[in-house]
């Protein structure tokens, strides 16, 4: 299996960065090929904008998704995007590894999603969810956060973390067609004792080792919807 | 009322940018003071990192939130952050205006949230939700998107858009203490006829005009939780 880890933490010595290193080693030990896009280390530019295209279909008015499609077809995507798209196409498993910032990904990783998951390849028209461009690939979210798990239970103060991650797990990765594997959460990291950190590292490894036995999260299937994407009635199905 | 509009669209001629311009004019007409942070126009840097602090509490190991707190207290935040924090403190109403990218904010706006909503001022310790640092201020999300409304009904293919926006509405704005007003969505924008766009502009204006009569979204209240943030039982309340 080819594994692409997209990692986004500003501190190379952080626990989150250790999780990236451990994942790299573990996937290699399992016999997989691994590549890492370390967004902070490479100084990745996260801002989707006009400079993302070496040539414009419409130089006077930017419709970002249309220019993505045009540039992908014409081979005129900016080189940094092209390099990431090549890795995305190469991988069988995409791992996003990051610290939770505002119940979401850090901006540098959001920009990777904005600029690399391009229209015309990853999605477009009716190509989404089970018909998305990334169908056949897996995606895995592994993240670290400051809060303890009990804040994110159904009756916890924030509610389930999966619900906070809905735009990422479903609205992005599921939409793009990935089989979205159950995410792994490293809770309460800044407050963890050395023994607790070790336990987290072990739990992370067990999660990676169990991946092949896990079922992906449930996502919508487009055959439940008609041509205009209205839900089909159960009787007409 | 002081209104800060944070706007994030790469095309100044876009419908989303027109919404920003219209909001500016409408709030002025209502007698409010208005400032706009146009993130693309100013070339805002969205990447949270070590350069955000003129002086470091710990130069060898970056804990971003701790350095935010330290730099806010010591007046050593990077100038671009300090300027945005001043606008944030000045405003009574924060408006986030953006095109929906992957069911979320564009990276440049995510970076504004990551870098400007600083620990020690906006949140920290038990200062969140109704005790958050932004308590007493209002926040409003106005966004444009490509999809039509029927994709985002409860039985629509994506489910309710509010649920996709949970990390922003609740996990960020609600968490920070804002009264989060009902968001406004400009549906199906790239496919709208001129008449439909005019109708959207009018709907947007009606939304702004009705803001004073609206109730904010429901958010958790910390008095429903104990000192360790476990839910209090109804009997002990």
Automatic annotation (TrEMBL), chains A, B:
Q: Superkingdom of this entry's organism?
A: Bacteria
Does Transmembrane appear among the keywords? no
- For the keyword Oxidoreductase, the answer is yes
Report the residue ranges that make up the Flavodoxin-like fold domain in this protein: 1-207
Q: Which Pfam families match?
A: Flavodoxin_2
Give the matching InterPro entries.
Flavodoxin_fold (IPR003680), Flavoprotein-like_sf (IPR029039), NAD(P)H_dehydrogenase_qn (IPR051545)
* Keyword annotations: Oxidoreductase
SUPFAM superfamilies linked = Flavoproteins
Question: Which Gene Ontology terms cover its molecular function?
Answer: NAD(P)H dehydrogenase (quinone) activity
Listed under GO cellular component are: cytosol
Similarity-based family: Belongs to the NAD(P)H dehydrogenase (quinone) family.
**By what name is this protein known?**
NAD(P)H dehydrogenase (Quinone)
